[in-house]
Amino acid sequence: MKFDMGAQVLTTLQSQSQGSSTDLGSLIRQLIAAAQPLEGKFNGQGRVAFDSFKSRSDEITAALNGSLAAILGGQSGMDAAFGTGDTEQGENATSQMSAANFDAARFSGR
Questions:
Q1: Angle at the Cα of 26 (from 25 to 31), degrees rounded to 5?
Q2: 68 and 17 in contact (C-beta within 8 Å)?
Q3: DSSP 8-73
Q4: Is residue 35 within 8 Å of 53, Cβ to Cβ?
Q5: From CA 76, how far away is CA 102, in angstroms rounded?
Q6: Is the separation of the CB atoms in 86 and 7 below 8 Å?
Q7: Is-contact 21 65, C-beta < 8 A?
Q8: 55: closest CA among 69, 43, 34, 39?
Q9: What is the pTM of this model?
Q10: What is the C-alpha separation between 81 and 85, in angstroms, rounded?
Q11: What are the angstrom distances between the C-alpha of 73 and each of 45, 63, 107?
Q12: Which of 39, 59, 90, 101 is the one with CA 20 to 30 A from 45?
């Protein structure tokens, strides 16, 4: 199994996720605004459901935004970990090469 990922993949993913978070918040606000004219038009269980939606809309928005923030935090952590790993891998390779005795190696065709 091979895992190959470009250096900017997680940064790009995080940027796109941030945009999606902004879009989601905007869509929820639009849904709430679109529902405003319906207030008071329902009776019975329809009214109960509508009133529940309206009263919980801020809570729902906060929960969704909190979940997206946690995803963004995870992506940021992965990006930092991969960046640190890449840097350490380069430093380890340089250190090992400087410790190697290339002059002692025989590359002749004898």
A1: 100
A2: yes
A3: THHHHHHHHHHHHHHHHHHHHHHHHHHHGGGTT---HHHHHHHHHHHHHHHHHHHHHHHHHHHHHH
A4: yes
A5: 40
A6: yes
A7: yes
A8: 39
A9: 0.58
A10: 6
A11: 40, 15, 51
A12: 59
Q: Provide block-wise average pLDDT over 10 residues at a time, the chain (110 residues).
A: 67 78 78 86 89 84 85 86 86 87 68
Short-list 18, 22, 1, 5, CA closest to 74? 18
Number of CB atoms found within 10 A of residue 10's CB: 19
In three-state secondary structure terms, 97 is helix
Which pLDDT value is given to residue 82?
Answer: 83
Rounded to an integer, what distance in angstroms lies between the CA atom of residue 95 and that of residue 85? 15
Tokens for 64, please give them: 């969704």
Give the dihedral sign, CA 40/41/46/49.
Answer: negative
**Amino acid residing at 99:** A
pLDDT of residue 88: 92
Stated as kind and residue range, the H or E segment containing 6 is none
